[in-house]
Amino acid sequence: MEEELKNQIHLILRSANMVFESKDHTSATILYFKVIFITLDLLLYRKKKITPKDHTERFRMLEKEFPEEYTLLDKYFQIYRDTYSLTIDIKTCEEIKKYATKTITRVGI
């Protein structure tokens, strides 16, 4: 399971970067968030040997097991919600891209 999650992180990150380069910042932001979610799921899997089934469960698990990661995700989650109805600008997309990269580094991938 850990290797599968790592493979997904690398594959989706590569896709996110290609979409970013095409200047579709809303879609790139969605993909960067997917990278963040999977990376945090890997962190949870390493500790609990389970992955969350949805965002609510992910938040609850992070709040209990990794409060600093919970706080960061909570800070940015509204941007993810905004991707469903708003166009995301390059500055915001770059901020989420940086958050994704830092999350990958913190988790040790």
Element layout with pairings:
Layout: H1 2-21, H2 25-48, H3 55-65, H4 67-82, H5 90-107
Helix pairs in contact: 1-2, 2-3, 2-5, 3-4
Outline the biggest β-sheet: none
The fold-level CATH name is: Four Helix Bundle (Hemerythrin (Met), subunit A)
User: Which structural category do the helix and sheet elements fall into?
Assistant: mainly alpha
Mean pLDDT: 97
**What's the CATH C level?**
Mainly Alpha
Cα separation of the termini: 14 Å
Radius of gyration: 13 Å
What number of structural domains do the residues give?
Answer: 1
The proportion of residues in beta strands is under 5%
Overall number of strands? 0
Order of helices and strands: HHHHH
- Which consecutive residue ranges, at least 5 long each, have pLDDT under 50? none
User: What gross morphology would you assign?
Assistant: globular
Number of helices: 5
Helix content: over 70%
